[in-house]
Design goal:
Length: 434
């Protein structure tokens, strides 16, 4: 019911916006156009009205696509008809996933600073985009992440041990140490392994969605990316393929304000990423990415459209990256401390959701204190175990890349074996599985 109501209200808001101020332009005499079929141009490339007035479409960045929200910053719901029906146990699971992710980020970020792991990326400020979207999907809907979606895996049950093993690249890491830290993947949790090159996951996700359409398996694909990745050619190809092939896919853009050090004002000049959806023929929703309930409603609705109508949906979640881009970045070089402090203290998604849960009686201050201690203890235990484990056998770098190892790769491995045997006293082989 809430999903249908949300779609109705969303459609009405777009209709109103089109009459008052179109999504990307102000067309003052639009009402004078005849939309009767016999008066429309019948060009193969466009079915549109004629006009006898020369008009230049101007980008409207001051009054753009509205941002859907459910709660205010204090966790108070604006319209109870838009409050999703989520039971207390599920609400608590969502909150625990958000806060556990935050705790894990703090510990692993510090561990990198101490030289214990090589690299890390935090998710500070974007927790609601992960958990709100994950909760709205089926557990076997396929996920293509970019690199800042660890919360989706955490919500689906990817364990702390698995996170830690991957970041340490030890012998229990599912990727056998072949990937950089935070490049997670899990077939068990329908999460495609992350790859570093930007936006390559977008056309791949469309291919999977097209396969789902042909298989009619009742699943959708969700593909996460940032507003910076939307500038890549792969993004445009993916949008167009998904629309023309009519694929059940949700494109989820995390617009967090910065593509590493590039602010949005240097990334694009239009009305964000959402405005590109209609241009490619996609249903589009812009949502407050710091409002976990709004993200949940948006993804629930998007999934319904993708499944029932076999059409792609673009979601632009407006949020803010509170942390540095990664441990290789120092964001103080391109943004002020006051700017970061504002979002951390005034509009943090975890704080907003916490206030909502308190008002519902679904959480308490006593539970919060107990959970903080418990979650920190769990993260530290997993961290300590992962750090003590041996690294994979060095031969793993040659295996499980090809189904059958090519001759040149086998030759390299044999040469490496001879080298290691000759200089074994120069390598810390005791730290590796034999």
């Amino acid at each position: 019911m809430a999903s249908r109501l949300f779609r109705s209200v969303l459609a009405q808001s777009y209709k109103t916006a089109t009459v008052r101020v179109p999504l990307c332009a102000q067309i003052g005499i639009r009402a004078n156009y005849s939309t009767e079929k016999e008066h429309l141009a019948q060009f193969p490339g466009a079915k549109a009205a004629y006009t006898e007035k020369l008009e230049v479409l101007q980008p409207d960045v001051l009054n753009g696509i509205p941002i859907y929200r459910v709660m205010d910053r204090d966790g108070k719901v604006f319209d109870l008809s838009h409050e999703p029906s989520i039971d207390t146990e599920e609400l608590q699971h969502m909150y625990k996933s958000m806060t556990m992710l935050n705790t894990m980020d703090k510990i692993l970020y510090e561990s990198q600073r101490q030289g214990r792991i090589s690299f890390y990326m935090t998710n500070y400020g974007e927790e609601a985009t992960h958990i709100g979207s994950a909760a709205a999907l089926k557990s076997d809907d396929l996920v293509y992440g970019q690199y800042r979606e660890a919360g989706v895996l955490m919500y689906r049950g990817f364990g702390l041990d698995q996170f830690m093993n991957q970041c340490y690249g030890n012998s229990d890491d599912g990727g056998k140490g072949k990937q950089m830290p935070v490049h997670y993947g899990s077939s068990e949790h329908s999460f495609v392994t992350i790859s570093s090159p930007l936006a390559t996951q977008l056309p791949q996700a469309v291919g999977s969605a097209y396969a789902f359409k042909r298989a009619q398996n009742g699943n959708v694909v969700i593909c996460y990316f940032g507003e910076g990745a939307a500038s890549e050619g792969d993004a445009h190809a993916a949008f167009n393929f998904s629309a023309t092939l009519e694929c059940p896919i949700i494109f989820f853009c995390r617009n967090n304000g910065y593509a590493i050090s590039t602010p949005v004002c240097e990334q694009y000049r239009g009305d964000g990423i959402a405005v590109r959806g209609p241009a490619y023929g996609m249903s589009t929703i812009r949502v407050d990415g710091n409002d976990v309930l709004a993200v949940y409603n948006a993804c629930k609705t998007a999934r319904e459209i993708a499944i029932t109508e076999n059409r792609p949906v673009l979601i632009e979640a407006m949020t803010y990256r509170i942390g540095h881009h990664s441990t290789s970045d120092d964001s103080s070089a391109y943004r002020s401390v006051d700017e970061v402090k504002y979002w951390d203290q005034k509009d943090h998604p975890i704080t907003r959701f916490y206030q909502y849960l308190l008002s519902k009686g679904a959480w308490s201050e006593a539970q919060e204190k107990e959970w903080k201690n418990e979650s920190k203890k769990k993260v530290l235990e997993a961290f300590a175990k992962a750090e003590k484990k041996l690294k994979p056998n060095w031969k793993e770098m040659f295996t499980e890349v090809y189904d059958e190892m090519p001759k040149d790769l086998r030759k390299q491995m044999e040469e490496m074996e001879k080298h290691v045997e000759m200089y074994k006293d120069q390598y810390p082989l005791k730290n590796y599985v034999k």
